[in-house]
Amino acid sequence: MRISIRPGTVALHAGLILGSVIMVGPFVWLVLAALKDLDEIYRVPPTWIPEQFHWDNFRKSLTALPSISFGRAYLNSGIISIGIVLGTLLTSSMAAYAFAKLRFAFRDVIFAAFLAVMMVPDIVTLIPKYLMIREFGWLDTRWALIVPGMLLNPFGVFLLRQFMLTVPRELEEAAIIDGANRWQIYWRVVLPQVGPALSALGILTFVGKWNEFFAPLIYLSNPRNFTVPLVLNLFRGQYVTDLPLMMAGTVIAFLPLLIVYIAGQKYIIEGITLTGIKG
């Protein structure tokens, strides 16, 4: 039995393999650099495999900043990221349900204007948001990051709206016949149908907020409230020549993201690919 191999298929797979190597290469170098000593990491020409694996770099990175607890930074990032995820799923799904299933004046115009917010750079609204957060008394607290992050997510609203448009209207009509109100239809009928999109949005939001640096830098000043990106920035300032400790801290910082991505990769793909383009 002869197996025919098309040149196009070979080129496609070769391109995918090359792209995968390019994407994974920096992460591999990051992990290997975290296991080197100071002399080897600055060696020219550089070496990929460490001559001796310094596993204690990870332990040292956790205690390299005596005035700041890496564990507390983990806790802060976790509380802020999870809080934003839960709030985003609630507010975005409610707004998406309104835009997808309810009929009201200027609905499409309002939706287009809402999506236009994505075109506005964050730096443009920085000063107004800072003044509002200061008036609320939220400066140097987690609320300064959680509340704005959960209330405005145009991409999340768009993603869930497109998915909700694919939910058959017959399900809502059957619920109305059974006496369900709008809230019950949203919570018990529509929301369970958009599980893949909710999972994808939750994972993408968690990854984005865990890595966020600019907003915590602006609103947080007490080291006890610092998130993981801010702590890593202090590594660069205080240990500017000790790259192995910086790389070890970075590896520890992205481990939760790696776990979340591996666990939720299926839901990300399913949520994006199954999202309808109707409407």
TrEMBL record:
Residues 74-264 form the ABC transmembrane type-1 domain. Its main location: membrane. Coiled coil: none annotated. It comes from the Bacteria. This is Carbohydrate ABC transporter permease. InterPro entries: MetI-like, MetI-like_sf. It is found in: Cell membrane. SUPFAM superfamilies: MetI-like. It comes from Cohnella cellulosilytica. The chain crosses the membrane at residues 12-35, 73-97, 109-131, 143-164, 185-207, 243-264. Belongs to the binding-protein-dependent transport system permease family. Keywords: Cell membrane, Membrane, Transmembrane, Transmembrane helix, Transport. It is a multi-pass membrane protein.
